[in-house]
Amino acid sequence: MTRTPAGHHVGIHSGDEEFLAVLVPFLREGIAAEDEPDPLAVVPARKLVLLRDALGSDARRVDLRESTRWYSGTPANGLAVALDYYAGHAGPTGRIHMAGEPVWDGRSARQTAEWTRYEALVTDLFAPYPITAMCLYDTRTAPPAVIDAARRTHPTELDRHGVHTGPEFTDPAVYVTQDLSPLPAPPPEALALGLAGDMTAAHRFATQQARSLGMAPEPADRFGEAVSGATGYAAAQGLDSAHLLLWSVRERILCEVRAPRGRITDPFLGFRPPGPEPRPEDGLWRTRQICEFVDLRSEDAAEGGWTIRMETALTATG
């Protein structure tokens, strides 16, 4: 049997039999690989039962996890979990088989859009690594728009007959930046803070304002830390004239960093974890771990200008 190539595959299925026909051979391939650890499968609880029965004695050789526990939190949180797992479990060659079925039930339209963008990011981020990853999509539970997005965010599709090139695949950088609408304008009562070179003031300001709006002390301090990640990026660009705007709406707190010049050209800014060499955007990794939404926009004006907007619930826990 030809070994499934490393990459970010999609496994679309419409029934339990098809689910098993796609996933079981994938996992058994990982079990048989001498240069790999046990494969990982993250699926809904009901499918864990099906999978254990289908695998039989091989089930003990698969790390079986339940989807709702793995895919809790934001896409950035999910990415951190996946990267931590890979760092802790991949074999000496870096190879590993990983399969997961994201959770779509209960997500808002905006949350769903963020998760589909995350899938495009995974394709970009995993490209340098010998990971054989498959994302499972069940047409019975995933909305049609999500299935369409899956075909656009995965370069290959894996079914019972093998691996096929995805004809609808879109370059990840193009996918995550197309159809971005302008951010709603802040309200007139938004509080402003000019940074004037004092980037430490941003943490204090955001933390104090979050507390005054009713956020508990620990998550308020975390929100201040998130804002510091964005102002730290501005400082690294030499943009002392950047400023903050902060406001709340419907039990949510929003804060944005606005810079008067330059552009954000990396659509995945803040999604790559810090490495051995420090980078200007490293603090934004923490920003994305803390905030539910982080939106990036660049201006069309000749001198440029950009905005990083952070948003989370005032009831966020520590």
Descriptive report:
- The structure is a single chain.
- The protein has 318 residues and is an alpha/beta fold.
- It folds into 2 domains: 7-177, Rossmann fold (3-Layer(aba) Sandwich), CATH 3.40.50; 191-313, Heat Shock Protein 90 (2-Layer Sandwich).
- It contains 10 helices and 12 strands.
- It has helices at 16-32, 45-55, 67-70, 75-89, 109-126, 144-153, 172-177, 200-212, 217-236, 282-290, and strands spanning 7-13, 40-43, 63-66, 96-100, 131-138, 156-159, 162-165, 191-194, 243-249, 252-259, 293-298, 306-313.
- The strands form 2 sheets. The chain has a 7-stranded mixed β-sheet, with helices on both faces. The protein has a 5-stranded antiparallel β-sheet with strand order 8-9-10-12-11, with helices on one face.
- β11 and β12 (306-313) form a beta hairpin.
- α8 (200-212) packs antiparallel against α9 (217-236).
- The model has no long low-confidence stretch (mean pLDDT 92).
List the helices and strands and how they pair.
Blueprint lengths: L6 E7 L2 H17 L7 E4 L1 H11 L7 E4 H4 L4 H15 L6 E5 L8 H18 L4 E8 L5 H10 L2 E4 L2 E4 L6 H6 L13 E4 L5 H13 L4 H20 L6 E7 L2 E8 L22 H9 L2 E6 L7 E8 L5
Parallel strand pairs: 1-5, 1-6, 2-3, 2-4, 4-5
Antiparallel strand pairs: 6-7, 8-9, 9-10, 10-12, 11-12
Helix pairs in contact: 1-2, 5-6, 8-9, 9-10
